[in-house]
């Protein structure tokens, strides 16, 4: 089949309603699309990619082809994603011009297509795609799930899928800090410095002092627990659902001689019974809680705090949308990265915390910081990509590269945000213990 690239570019234009903004290189070696230096090239290595996209139109079909290595990008990945965002991730499904569906939903969608040109283009895609059925989904895809969202068992399986992929892999991506959440940047700083500054900021917002009990919900590889114990004299309990994270964190605790101050548990936050705590940190964990459980999450943390105790809830948010009743993540993220993850608007999060009894005292929006963090993680992965693929699988390394790069752009474009919400279990007499001036902790440690 000769000059497949020209046929693909023309068909994409017919289906999308606009010319394809990147070059295309097809499995036969042909190329087509915008000329010139700096134009990314979308490489379609195998016709199976078309079958996947035809069978599951939209993001999931693209994701399967990417994970399987049938689709790739040559050139600047960020530039390619920026050019394609308006056609794939940011298309308005209500605004017309969305591409017609193709098989397996295919026959019905083709019959329903009113534009003869669109129908002809869709049939041509099917001829290019080759024999049916499409290949099976890549092994890295989460198996089909059933039953209620966010039960203990289902949450444990979701966390294991994302975090139990090898600590060596995460070391490669995250660097020595082993912090898997937004860093806090200053001009000219390194990733390690920015992560250290984020941990210090959390401790200062919580006003930790010698001997305070801190509960670290979703403690990851133990970085915050170690920082709070080492630099603030806190006694820390860290809980995670990931056995691999817990093992790694416990070794770090032992190696630093802090076993008398830090305890790491494989435990669901709903099963913590040894309150009250002076402070609670939840850093990058609440995205796993889900709308159906979020009020209970807030109530549990409120009940675990002593009166006057502080909660620091660091959480990714999405822009509010009146059409949304649930806040599930995009299909690619759900299938390959964060199963059952949900991103709520900031207003919904703060309202639920206050409904549970908290007094919200400060909100700091730091989405630009997360974009910088993700770009640094992507750079780490790209510098040692072959090693990362050996440590997990080529498909999983490709997943992480795409999801982190796309997420960086989403933060930069204000499609999603991240916020540190500081809340207090204010006692009945109203004495919150907060400083009179906001953000005094930046200079004085919360005193």
Automatic annotation (TrEMBL):
Keyword Lipid metabolism attributed: yes
Region (Disordered): 128-152
Keyword Cell membrane attached: no
GO molecular function annotation: cyclopropane-fatty-acyl-phospholipid synthase activity
Keywords: Lipid metabolism, Methyltransferase, S-adenosyl-L-methionine, Transferase
E.C. code: 2.1.1.79
Domain Polyketide synthase-like methyltransferase, residue spans: 169-409
Biological process terms in GO annotation: lipid biosynthetic process; methylation
Enzyme class (EC, first level): transferase
First and last residue of the signal peptide: none
Family as reported in the entry's similarity comment: Belongs to the CFA/CMAS family.
Record-linked PANTHER family: CYCLOPROPANE-FATTY-ACYL-PHOSPHOLIPID SYNTHASE (PTHR43667)
Protein name per Swiss-Prot or TrEMBL: Cyclopropane-fatty-acyl-phospholipid synthase
Source species: Streptomyces fradiae ATCC 10745 = DSM 40063
Lineage: Bacteria, Bacillati, Actinomycetota, Actinomycetes, Kitasatosporales
Gene: cfa
């Amino acid at each position: 089949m000769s000059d497949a690239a020209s046929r693909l570019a023309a068909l994409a234009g017919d289906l999308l309603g606009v010319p394809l903004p990147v070059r295309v290189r097809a499995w036969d070696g042909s190329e087509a699309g915008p000329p010139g230096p700096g134009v990314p090239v979308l490489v379609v290595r195998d016709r199976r990619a078309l079958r996947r996209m035809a069978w599951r139109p939209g993001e999931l079909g693209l994701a399967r082809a990417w994970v399987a290595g049938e689709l790739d990008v040559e050139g600047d990945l960020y530039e390619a994603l920026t050019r394609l965002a308006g056609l794939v991730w940011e298309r308005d499904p209500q605004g017309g011009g969305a591409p017609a569906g193709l098989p397996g939903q295919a026959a019905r969608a083709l019959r329903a297509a009113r534009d003869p040109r669109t129908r002809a283009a869709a049939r041509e895609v099917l001829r290019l795609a080759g024999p049916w059925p499409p290949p099976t989904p890549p092994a890295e895809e989460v198996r089909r799930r059933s039953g209620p969202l966010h039960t203990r068992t289902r949450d444990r399986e979701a966390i294991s899928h994302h975090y139990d992929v090898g600590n060596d892999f995460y070391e490669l991506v995250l660097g020595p800090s082993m912090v898997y959440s937004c860093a806090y940047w200053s001009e000219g700083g390194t990733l390690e410095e920015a992560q250290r500054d984020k941990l210090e900021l959390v401790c200062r917002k919580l006003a930790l002092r010698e001997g305070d009990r801190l509960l670290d919900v979703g403690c990851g590889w133990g970085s915050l627990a170690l920082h709070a114990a080492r630099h603030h004299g806190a006694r820390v309990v860290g809980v995670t659902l990931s056995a691999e994270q817990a093992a790694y964190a416990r070794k770090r605790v032992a190696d630093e001689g802090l076993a008398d101050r830090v305890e790491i548990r494989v435990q669901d936050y709903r099963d913590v019974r040894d309150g009250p705590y002076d402070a609670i940190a939840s850093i990058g964990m609440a995205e796993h809680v889900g709308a159906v459980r979020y009020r209970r999450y807030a109530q549990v943390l409120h009940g675990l705090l002593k009166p006057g105790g502080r909660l620091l809830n660091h959480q990714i948010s999405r822009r509010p949308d009146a059409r949304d009743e649930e806040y599930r993540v995009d299909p690619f993220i759900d299938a390959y990265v964060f199963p059952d993850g949900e991103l709520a608007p900031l207003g919904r999060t703060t309202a639920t915390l206050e409904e549970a009894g908290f007094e919200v005292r400060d909100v700091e929006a730091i989405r630009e910081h997360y974009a910088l963090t993700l770009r640094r993680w992507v750079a780490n992965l790209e510098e040692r990509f072959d090693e990362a693929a050996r440590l997990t699988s080529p498909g999983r390394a490709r997943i992480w590269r795409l999801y982190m790069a796309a997420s960086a752009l989403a933060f930069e474009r204000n499609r999603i945000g991240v916020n540190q919400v500081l809340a207090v279990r204010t006692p009945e007499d109203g004495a919150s213990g907060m400083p009179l001036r906001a953000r005094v902790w930046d200079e004085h440690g919360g005193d």
